[in-house]
Design goal:
single chain; disordered N terminus; 4 domains; 24 helices; 486 residues; mainly alpha; 0% strand; Serine Threonine Protein Phosphatase 5, Tetratricopeptide repeat
């Protein structure tokens, strides 16, 4: 009897969802986006709200030019987990193609801070900044570019609400620009040199003939000008919390704090971007030097000037630790990542805790201290939110157990890895998971199961046309078959 025939309780077979997801991915790769959307939609009827499925469908919508549909799917994928980085990327992409470059920039930055190793976020930041400059158009107003995610120095992630702001802009942009709790004098003090840009844009908005025009890309000039004004209003609100006017007056009266730059927020955002850029480009020494220099500056500030000073110090310890890892100085790297963990726990920052546990586990695994790697990585499991990260983590823990010849535990984590990979329909990790289970089963003497898992891994490798993995798995499969009973 087939699985379908045996399913009398009305539920869909367990494998149908994974099949529909795999079909959607395959159709997407072939460029058949409409059919892929149908597959993802069918999969969502089985598992409503599945994050990976929503992200997959969002990608297809974008390819078809349906940016608003893509935004809806991306936001739905973030409903339960606002730090789901695949969803953040698709949301940023949708906003970018809708012409909401400032809000796209915010989400590209947020994603990069969660997953600095994902190159797409860096490229997104670059193209969003360039788009903002191109929209403004003149050298004087090009000063409007303010690099960085404005929510970076905020603990309350909902303070800015860029998604809600996008929806509000569609219905009443003019009302949004006029909504400011600050007096004109206060706004002028907070914006500084940007205040003249703000007044100039407001004057342009009054020119009815001008605002009816469109850019070369087809965008209404009214929308472009209004989005820039909204961005400056967001900056005003943010800076009012980060650098109160009373503090500015005190500095002007002759009591400046030595060593603190005039714009701490901008200094930090630029510095952290530079540190990450150096490491990403392979220049670990320059990244280390910059991070250590910025740390000296931040340590000289009071928590009154920078309320989340300890959180920033944790990020800098993480940057220094990562640079030291690249340079091979594992002992010093470990010290900095432990300091990052300590500060994240003090500040009650789940993402910071997860980041530090991840890095500490990596160092122990790379230096052959597999028991310690497992210890820290297993602490990380409750902090994991994304399906891809969960899959990777289960695989690495299982691999450590395999190295320790604890084969039962290795098999258990291999099975968990396979299930997690099925949930996100990632064939590469499905292949890796089946290889891990196969190796564990062979050590446990379960040869038939071992062969079965190697065969499954081989199928996945061939579907991906992975020319490096196929011969390796074939060789392992042949050796395993020799142990089958004759």
């Amino acid at each position: 009897m087939s699985e379908m025939d045996g399913n009398h309780d009305g539920q869909k077979p367990k494998g149908v969802f994974s099949t529909l997801m795999a079909d959607g991915e395959w159709l997407y790769l072939k460029g058949e986006y409409k059919k892929a959307i149908s597959s993802y939609t069918a999969a969502l009827t089985l598992k409503p709200g599945d994050k990976s499925c929503l992200v997959g469908r969002a990608r297809c919508h974008l390819k078809m030019g349906l940016s608003e549909n893509a935004l809806q799917d991306a936001e739905a994928s973030l409903k339960e987990d606002k730090s789901y980085f695949e969803g953040l990327y698709q949301k940023a992409e949708a906003l970018y193609y809708m012409g909401e470059f400032e809000f796209a920039l915010v989400f590209y930055h947020r994603g990069q801070k969660l997953r600095p190793q994902v190159q797409e976020f860096r490229l997104g930041i670059q193209k969003a900044q360039e788009a903002i400059e191109n929209c403004v158009g003149s050298p004087s107003s090009a000063k409007l570019e303010i690099k960085g995610d404005l929510s970076f120095l905020q603990r309350d992630e909902e303070r800015a609400q860029p998604s809600a702001a996008v929806q509000h802009l569609r219905t009443d942009r003019k009302q949004q620009s006029q909504k400011t709790p600050k007096s004109e004098r206060t706004t002028k003090q907070l914006l500084g040199e940007f205040y003249s840009d703000k007044k100039y844009l407001e004057k342009l908005l009054e020119d009815e003939d001008l605002v009816k025009g469109r850019t070369k890309g087809g965008e209404r000039l009214q929308d472009v000008i209004q989005s820039c004004l909204t961005y400056l209003d967001t900056c005003t609100e943010f800076w009012s919390q980060e650098k109160p006017v009373c503090a500015q007056k005190r500095r002007r009266s002759g009591n400046p704090r030595r060593g603190a730059p005039p714009e701490p927020v901008q200094f930090l955002l630029t510095s952290l971007d530079d540190i990450d850029a150096e490491l990403t480009s392979g220049n670990a020494e320059a990244s280390l030097k910059k991070a250590e220099g910025v740390m000296k500056v931040v340590r000289g500030w009071s928590e009154r000037e920078v309320p989340n000073k300890r959180e920033l110090l944790g990020s800098l310890h993480s940057c220094i630790g990562n640079a030291l890892m690249e340079l091979g100085d594992m002992d010093r790297a470990l010290e900095h990542h432990h300091k990052d963990l300590e500060l994240a726990e003090e500040c009650k920052l789940p993402d910071g805790v997860s980041r530090a546990l991840d890095n500490i586990g990596r160092i122990h695994a790379q230096t052959g201290r597999f028991s310690l790697a497992i210890q820290f990585w297993e602490k990380k499991i409750p902090e994991v939110r994304g399906g891809l990260e969960r899959t990777w983590l289960f695989h690495e823990i299982g691999w450590c157990y395999l190295e320790l010849e604890r084969h039962e535990e290795a098999r258990a984590y291999g099975v968990r890895c396979a299930a997690a990979a099925d949930d996100i329909a990632d064939e590469k990790w499905q292949m890796n998971a089946h290889v891990l289970v196969a190796q564990s089963q062979l050590k446990l003497g379960n040869v038939e199961s071992c062969v079965s898992h190697f065969e499954e891994a081989l199928t996945r490798a061939r579907l991906q046309e992975d020319t490096s993995a196929v011969p390796v798995i074939l060789k392992a499969l042949d050796e395993a078959r020799r142990h089958l009973p004759q």
